[in-house]
Design a protein that fits this description.
Helices cover 71% and strands 0% of the residues. Helix 1 runs antiparallel to helix 11, helix 7 packs antiparallel against helix 11 and helix 10 runs antiparallel to helix 11. It is globular and about 85 Å long. It comes from Aromatoleum tolulyticum. It is found in: Cell membrane. Keywords: Cell membrane, Membrane, Transmembrane, Transmembrane helix.
């Protein structure tokens, strides 16, 4: 036994969950959130929701196709993805997610194909450089209402499973009290639906003439409800932490409360949510502004949880400092994912112009 005292001054730790993970959780959340917004008009046939639902389905498809790329990049070696299938681990939610994602994407792609096929056929009949390709794709089979509902049901099952696993796999990390809170999956879900509505609002504003005012008001009201839900969940989280009724929430609050950066982040989140709620209620016609605010809140919530959560030390005192690198694991990766999303948007809207998606009445529907 030695009489010496060993003092650990600092331990350098690499960030385990990179910005790739933030992008994946952001995009897959937008996808299943926008998918849910597509149901009223396309599946339940609610009047006034047809254009909204079609725009939301486009948003769900774009984000759903882009999200897995960010997930593969987060594996550091993308070839590792097949390990999830070759070495299935029933006790791992991440392992289950490798099966949930294909279920959701398969249902989503079939659902989108069946929903957009009539519009694609009409667009092909009007001629153009891509008319031959579009006509062959559009008339590939007989349109069936039952098939569309069945595909939407498959996508719904997949969306529910994806929403469940993306929330629970983070919540189960006991080493980080900020993540290990039962309300975290609920916060992910609420902000995902808000983000899906926000992206649909942005698409609606991009339509010629600034979009349908009635559709903008409907989405603004729905977005206001999500902001109320977000504020309520945040208030419950704070009460549970301050009162001590929930030890895990109390421990998480104790870790972040002394930090000025975390205090600023909390104030920022509350103000952004309150401003979005106020604009949605008082100025429902400002679709672009509230849509961008909703997208901002969905992104910042995930960035704060994942990156900010890793700035809290597992052992030791103080807080770690993270600086976004400029390379593939940082800014370049974010820009690359955004570029892929834009490429898919251009490709899909070349076959299906945005106006025909958002205004089916003007496309002969």
């Amino acid at each position: 036994m030695t009489p010496d005292i060993v003092e650990t001054v600092n331990v350098a730790r690499e960030v385990a969950w990179l910005p790739w993970a933030v992008q994946y959780f952001f995009l897959i959340g937008l996808s299943y959130g926008a998918y849910l917004v597509s149901l009223p008009g396309l599946v339940f046939r609610r009047r006034g929701w047809e254009g909204i639902s079609r725009l939301a389905l486009l948003a769900a498809l774009l984000c759903g196709l882009t999200a897995p790329v960010a997930l593969l990049a987060d594996l550091h070696q993308p070839g590792r993805f097949w390990h999830f299938y070759a070495y299935f681990t029933p006790s791992s939610w991440m392992s289950w997610g490798a099966f949930f994602i294909p279920v959701y994407l398969t249902g989503l792609i079939l659902y989108a194909w069946l929903a957009f096929r009539p519009t694609l056929a009409r667009h092909a009949d009007e001629g153009g450089r891509l008319a031959g390709l579009a006509r062959r794709l559009a008339y590939g089979g007989h349109e069936s209402r039952k098939a569309l509902v069945a595909a939407a049901l498959l996508a719904f099952i997949g969306a529910a499973l994806v929403a469940l696993y993306t929330g629970v796999e983070v919540m189960l990390v006991r080493a980080r009290p900020l993540w290990h809170t039962p309300l975290l999956p609920v916060q992910f879900f609420v902000t995902a639906v808000a983000g899906g509505l926000g992206l649909a609002l942005v698409f609606n504003r991009a339509l010629p003439g600034g979009g349908d005012p009635a559709a903008t008001r409907r989405m603004a009201i729905a977005l206001a409800l999500t902001q109320c839900a977000a504020l309520l969940v945040g208030a419950v989280w704070l009460v549970l932490g301050m009162s001590g009724m929930s030890p895990v929430h109390a421990q998480a609050l104790a870790e972040v409360a002394p930090s000025a950066n975390w205090q600023l982040s909390a104030a920022w989140a509350v103000v952004a949510t309150a401003v979005t709620l106020a604009l949605a209620l008082l100025r429902p016609g400002s679709g672009l502004a509230i849509g961008l605010l909703a997208l901002h809140s969905a992104w910042m919530m995930r960035w704060t949880i994942f990156i900010g959560g890793q700035e809290l030390p597992k052992t030791g005192a103080g807080y770690y400092s993270y600086q976004l690198p400029l390379g593939p694991e940082g800014l370049m990766g974010i820009v690359g994912t955004a570029g892929l999303w834009i490429f898919l948007f251009v490709a899909l809207t070349t076959l299906l112009p945005l106006e025909r998606i958002g205004r089916p009445d003007r496309a002969g529907a």
